[in-house]
Design brief:
Length: 227
């Protein structure tokens, strides 16, 4: 495929996204390990970081200057990245280091698997409207929250398991739809979009990570009380 109107080729965009994503992961990994090993009673601070990161990310999408005006886009994204990385550590702190590595690895495998699936769909050019996929993914988020609420009203030992399963499905759908939407809008992409795309993919990795952490907790709870 030739370059688009902004002089960006598909190979360049993909290469930049992969490079930035790898940097994100490599910088985050030692932070998570250190927090997992040594952090105690810091949950309030890390969860606060997570909330602030999402607020900052919302502002970034609302104001175009924060997405494309240099150097503010780099500064805002870097701050948002660090806050979200620290926030994700909330789910790894004071936990078994072996299980932490397992969850990190499985989350990465999930990410790679569904990125490759998205690439296959793009190459075959056979996929439904990605916006519809995104809507279904968003509804799955709502459904997962609904299951958690129902657990308060009607106690059942597997509500949380069901909620986590639906949550992971929603993350998969959001990831695939994001990649497909990006591919459909290739003609208007600029180089700085690669950073935003990589960051969104990184967020989906964090969601896989959180889902994996909760899944392990559910399995341990079920083994202890129901199996």
């Amino acid at each position: 495929m030739p370059e688009n109107e902004n002089g960006v080729s598909p190979k360049k965009i993909v290469g930049l996204v992969v490079l930035i994503l790898v940097i994100f992961l490599l910088v985050a990994l030692p932070q998570w390990i250190l927090l997992c090993l040594y952090a105690t009673d810091h949950l309030v601070y890390t969860l606060t970081c997570f909330c602030v990161a999402f607020l900052l990310l919302t502002c970034m999408h609302l104001f175009e200057a924060l997405k494309y005006k240099r150097p503010w886009n780099y500064i805002v994204l870097a701050v948002c990245y660090e806050l979200m990385t620290l926030g994700a550590a909330s789910f790894l702190m004071e936990w078994d280091i072996t299980l932490t590595f397992i969850v990190l690895g499985v989350a990465f495998l999930f990410l790679v698997l569904f990125l490759l699936l998205s690439l296959l769909l793009i190459v075959l050019d056979k996929y439904p409207n990605p916006f519809n996929i995104a809507i279904v993914g968003s509804m799955c988020f709502v459904l997962a929250f609904f299951f958690e609420v129902v657990d308060v009203v009607k106690e059942w030992c597997f509500w949380r398991d069901l909620a986590v399963t639906v949550f992971l499905i929603s993350v998969i759908l959001i990831l695939v739809s994001h990649v497909l939407i990006t591919a459909d809008n290739f003609e208007v992409l600029v180089e700085d979009d690669a950073m935003i795309v990589a960051f969104v993919v990184y967020i989906t990795y964090l969601l896989f990570l959180i889902g994996g952490r909760i899944s392990v907790n559910c399995i341990q709870h079920n083994r202890k009380h129901h199996w």
